[in-house]
Design brief:
Layout lengths: L25 H30 L5 E2 L6 E2 L2 H8 L4 H7 L11 H14 L3 H5 L19 H18 L1
Antiparallel strand pairs: 1-2
């Protein structure tokens, strides 16, 4: 068996003191173990959060790519699957203008916006929105689900007007 005698810390490279063999401190030693078990720790934390939310009766949204459950599916899709939330909705024929968060979370965020008055930013940004005839319009096509919903809505309005 080969014995390796170190003079510097395995993590940060600091010179080792008397009676230190591999790491210069507890922090360096723990960082190595965290890196080794990072995936397991992340998975365990995610599962614990999901169980906690399900136990409290709060619904989650399932990712149709990996099958995991999330509160904010759009963020997950962008960060993990490297596609925009809109591309995700188009790929799985979901309504493009509908959100990918549960109703309770949307209500919570709406209440927070009312409480800290960030809804006023909508009024301030009105001058930057697209107007009819702008060149930037028409970048995206409507999804098949939205088109179907609009057709049924249009036929319903025709029947109610007659």
């Amino acid at each position: 068996m080969k014995i390796e005698i170190r003079t510097h810390c395995k993590v940060c490279g600091t010179k080792l003191g008397y009676r230190q063999r591999t790491f210069c401190s507890k922090t360096c030693r723990e960082s190595i173990y965290y890196q080794r078990y990072k995936e397991r720790i992340t998975e365990w934390t995610r599962n614990r959060l999901q169980e906690k939310l399900k136990a409290s009766g709060k619904e989650l949204v399932q990712c149709l790519i990996c099958g995991r459950w999330y509160i904010q599916l759009g963020n997950h899709v962008v960060q993990v699957h490297k596609m925009s939330a809109r591309e995700y909705r188009e790929e799985f024929n979901l309504e493009v203008k509908r959100g990918t968060t549960p109703a309770w979370f949307r209500k919570l965020k709406g209440d927070i916006a009312l409480e800290n008055e960030t809804y006023k930013n909508l009024k301030a940004g009105k001058k930057f929105r697209f107007k009819k005839g702008d060149l930037g319009l028409g970048k995206y096509k409507r999804s098949p689900v939205t088109m179907e919903r609009l057709k049924t809505l249009h036929t319903f309005n025709k029947k109610s007007n007659n």
